[in-house]
Amino acid sequence: MNLLNYGWDPAMMPDNAVGIPARITAVSRDLFEFVCEQGSGLARLKTAEYTVGGETFPTTGDFVLLDRQPAGESRILKTLPRKTYFSRLDPSSSGHGEQAVAANFDTVFIMQSLNSNFNLHRLERYLTLAWQSGAVPVVVLTKADLVKDDTEQLRAAEKIAVGAEVLAVSSRTGQGMSSLEKYLQPRRTVVFLGSSGVGKSSLVNALAGEAVMNTGEIREEDGRGRHTTTHRQLLMMPSGVMVIDTPGMRELGMWDVTEGIGRSFADVEQYFGRCRFSDCRHQSEPGCAVRAAIERGELSEERWESYCRLKNEARYSDDKAGYLREKQQWHKNIAQINRSRRKNGKQEKW
Q: Which of 210, 198, 256, 200 is nearest to 233 (CA)?
């Protein structure tokens, strides 16, 4: 097996490295599937390196060094540096932990279907995390055969997908599939992200030319599908491109998205620095460039609120204690102002 076909670059090999290079193709709890020059197999983490030595826990798509055991489970010794990385707030961590999703990919296909799944606010979240990963996001609107006219949805997606291409496709009829070809090149890796039922597995099957992934039916009452993908898995397509299929995500919490927000909301942040006051909060201050853009119709109030909501959520994730302290101080300041105004016979409404 040629690991070069799986995206391996010999320059990634560290000096004085111990072990052989491999790529993680799937993760199931503490068991890892891998491919290497000698073939494929299963491995577990070497405890000393990961629980004591502080090694980064690998995820699907990672390149690692391992002690290969042909007759049994191999041992993963080291996770090699990543070129791209997608993560989210771990929904099982009560807001305290990060969940790795995929690593070392070139393109992110953010997938929504052109039925009741289409949701611009969800798309904004995916775009923010995708830009943060370091890869190029592409918005893929699936099930184009189910709608007579997708013009309105395409325009709405293009308006918020600043810097990303938006494509409409149908895995069933082949509509628009040729537009994906430039991203599906040999030795490249594409990660599929989207909610359950948007057609990720169907697109994988269409690219493979056969049923390599199970697909589920869509419930008529809400347009949602079953979780047909149960874990993240890297698959080699006949064309030589690799696809990382991921389970549908009901929750997509922000985790370290400082750069991603700036790229995803470039249309919003372009007004920053144009305000009369350098410490403008973009609320009711005179000379606020953001409020002026909203009044002129250049920036929608809804888009601004989405930015503020994700920015606050990201700040909360980065520094929960600091965020709560700041919020508490803000409430104290308002209380003090109201007390002062009551003494002067005035009452300010907030």
A: 200
Q: Which residues contact 242 (CB under 8 A, 6 or more apart)?
A: 6, 7, 187, 188, 189, 190, 234, 235, 236
Which among 226, 211, 202, 229 has a CA at the least distance from the CA of 27? 229
Q: For 286-320, how does the pLDDT look when each residue is reduced to its tens digit (9 = 90+)?
A: 999 999 999 999 999 999 998 998 888 776 555 54
Which tens digits make up the pLDDT trace of 1-17? 899 999 999 999 999 88
User: How much is the pTM?
Assistant: 0.77
Strand spans (E) along the chain: 20-28, 31-36, 39-45, 63-67, 74-79, 85-89, 98-103, 107-113, 136-142, 165-168, 189-194, 233-236, 242-245
Nearest to 236 by CA among 214, 210, 208, 213: 208
Q: Distance (Å, rounded) from C-alpha 214 to C-alpha 205?
A: 9
CA-to-CA dists, residue 157 to 8, 182, 271, 301, angstroms: 34, 21, 21, 17
d(CA 197, CA 220): 12
Rounded Cα distance between 123 and 45, Å, is 35
Map tokens 């308006």 to a residue: 159
Rounded-to-integer distance, Cα 197 and Cα 225, Å? 4
Backbone angles phi, psi at 44, to 5 degrees: -125, 165
Tell me the per-residue pLDDT of 254-268, one tens digit each, with 9 for 90 and over.
455 667 788 889 999
Closest CA to 264 of 82, 137, 155, 142: 137
Please give the Cα distance from 291 to 81 (Å, whole number).
Answer: 43
Q: Which of 132, 73, 77 is nearest to 102 (CA)?
A: 132
Cα distances from 130 to residues 193, 243, 262, 263, 297, in angstroms, run: 9, 16, 12, 10, 28
